[in-house]
Specification:
Organism: Fictibacillus solisalsi
Structural class: alpha/beta
InterPro entries: ComF/GntX_DNA_util-trans, PRTase-like, PRTase_dom
Strand order of the largest sheet: 5-10-9-6
Number of helices: 9
Strand content: 15-25%
Protein name: Competence protein ComFC
Family: Belongs to the ComF/GntX family.
């Protein structure tokens, strides 16, 4: 018998040969909760990974969404992010999960993403240097952990921290879209480990990709520090 990481209800996992031989991990969520996740399948933006089913056709140009086209048209941000890939649509259910994780301190929920997060990493990014998006000192102290760091640890490979956050902002969830895109100065700078990324392909890890502003600011600093390319991977998009 398992207990759902989200609703805490007891449930029995379906018996299969993979379950019997322990080739698969125990199910972290019950069927009801599992069915509330919206996996990103089918066609999606080649840069940010957003599902094309989520917006009208006029907001798409070939393989890109208009958001990414705007980013690429900006001289400062063109080519900064190679690609982002995410597990799930950031729907109301996933918002609740992320809220419990970040604002109620339920860090154990991270373990529910272990298997699919590792699978996506192996399919798309294996061999890249893993970099969790850092929190400010204030936010880390307040929360007690960095959710991006915990997600990065699920991948089982070496983690480096070549950047640090130097500006403490109000929570992203409290910002409007316009506020998130209004980048006056970069909130990151290179750290002492920046030497390790010279000439390397880097993978940024974070919980959610929303506008892409935070990811691109971090990527820009690492490219300036000598990284060959920067991509990102998140749970939600």
């Amino acid at each position: 018998m398992n207990y759902c990481l989200y609703c805490h209800e007891a449930f029995y996992e379906p018996v299969s040969w993979r379950f019997i031989t322990r080739l698969s991990e125990a199910m972290p969520f019950c069927d009801d909760c599992s069915s509330s996740f919206e996996a990103i399948n089918g066609e999606f933006c080649g840069i940010c990974g957003r599902s094309f089913t989520l917006f009208p056709e006029q907001y798409r140009q070939k393989h890109c969404c208009t958001d990414c086209i705007r980013w690429e048209e900006g001289k400062e941000w063109s080519g900064v992010l190679t690609k982002n890939r995410s597990l799930y649509v950031y729907n109301d259910f996933l918002k609740q999960i992320i809220s419990m994780l970040k604002y109620r301190g339920d860090a154990e929920l991270i373990q529910g993403f272990r298997a699919p997060f590792r699978k996506l990493y192996k399919q798309e990014f294996r061999g890249m240097l893993i970099v969790p998006v850092p929190l400010s000192v204030e936010r880390h102290y307040e929360r007690g952990f960095n959710q991006a760091q915990l997600l990065a640890e699920l991948l089982g490979d070496e983690i480096i921290v070549p950047i640090e956050r130097i500006i403490h902002e109000k929570k992203q969830s409290k910002k409007s879209r316009k506020e998130r895109l209004d980048i006056k100065e970069n909130i990151f700078q290179a750290s002492k480990e920046a030497e390790k990324i010279k000439g390397k392909s880097v993978l940024l890890i974070d919980d959610v990709y929303t506008t892409g502003a935070t990811i691109r600011q971090a990527a820009k600093v690492m490219l300036e520090a000598g990284a060959l390319e920067v991509s990102s991977m998140t749970v939600g998009r």
